[in-house]
Amino acid sequence: MKTSAAYIFSLFLATTFSQGQDFISDTAAIRLSYSTTPDRKIDGSTTEVGLDQWAVMSPIFYHKGEGWSFGAGLRYESTKLTFSDITMLDEDTLHSIDLPLFLGKEQSERLQWMILFNPTIASDLDHVDGDSLNYMTLAGARYKKSETLEWFFGAVYTTGFDDNLFLPAVGFHWKPSGKSDLFFAGPYLRYRYSWNESLDLIIGGNLSGNRWNTEASYGERDFRLRSYRLSLTLQWNLADKHALFASMGTELARKVEVKNANGTMLLDNDLGSTPNFEVGYRFRF
């Protein structure tokens, strides 16, 4: 199914804004995960695309002072790629490195301002230049309306998602009880229910994908995958600091794109929907 650029941009905006909140909650944890997405054919083609990904995210530091907080993290993802048409894309291993930097200012008990700057290098690492570097900047506010409801307002500027993009963002976090909470921002959805202290059920929906800058014998090419992922996750809290999680879901509205160094679109097609599976471990400090 074809999707307009404006609609895609709006979805991406809301997702990146919600990621700012995720970074705040994950600054005190190391997260390791493995996910697999089975091969599927590109529409109108015999070419198949599949992924296996390892990812690690860790805080570098986090400091909370009187009214101010500042943090930095590091995320690395290795992608084992199956792309059966090597004349279009001759790559089997891709890499992505993120360095999110967060700054927050508490103006009052109800209002907090925040800025998130996230530079990313995504490439095959055989050839890294300015085309491999993109960044996202988010600025906004979190308003605590009550003990159970928080609102988020702001704007995002990002590069590397087709044209450079600047758009507003809005979202909310609702805690109807001590056992459950709901976070929603555009296409990003996360509902958590805790059966007990040891077991959590998480239902989620979010955009998934990346853009990698690569180079092979045919020259430089940008490779992009994107989709919308629905997932169901069980998390076992083994102790105060340790947790295991397992997810299963499906990826919908999938797109695959390949551009050459001149920006000419060589491939822009839908990709068949597919299940997705992920397992991982989280350690909280």
Give a structural overview.
- It is a single chain.
- This protein is mainly beta and 285 residues long.
- The chain has a single domain, classed as Porin (Beta Barrel), CATH 2.40.160.
- It contains one helix and 16 strands.
- It has a 16-stranded antiparallel sheet that branches.
- It is globular, with a radius of gyration of 19 Å.
- The chain starts with a helix and ends with a strand.
Short overview:
With 285 residues, the protein is mainly β. The chain has one helix and 16 strands.
CATH fold node name: Porin
Order of helices and strands: HEEEEEEEEEEEEEEEE
Total count of helical runs of at least 4 residues:
1
Instruction: Indicate the structural class.
Output: mainly beta
Q: Which word captures the global form?
A: globular
The proportion of residues in beta strands is over 45%
Query: What is the typical, i.e. mean, pLDDT?
Result: 85
Itemize the secondary structure elements and their pairings.
Layout: H1 5-26, E1 29-41, E2 48-64, E3 68-83, E4 93-98, E5 101-106, E6 111-123, E7 133-144, E8 149-158, E9 165-177, E10 180-185, E11 188-194, E12 199-216, E13 219-237, E14 242-260, E15 265-271, E16 274-284
Antiparallel strand pairs: 1-2, 1-16, 2-3, 3-4, 3-5, 4-6, 5-6, 6-7, 7-8, 8-9, 9-10, 10-11, 11-12, 12-13, 13-14, 14-15, 14-16
Top keywords for this entry?
285 residues, mainly beta, Porin, 16-stranded antiparallel beta sheet, 68% strand
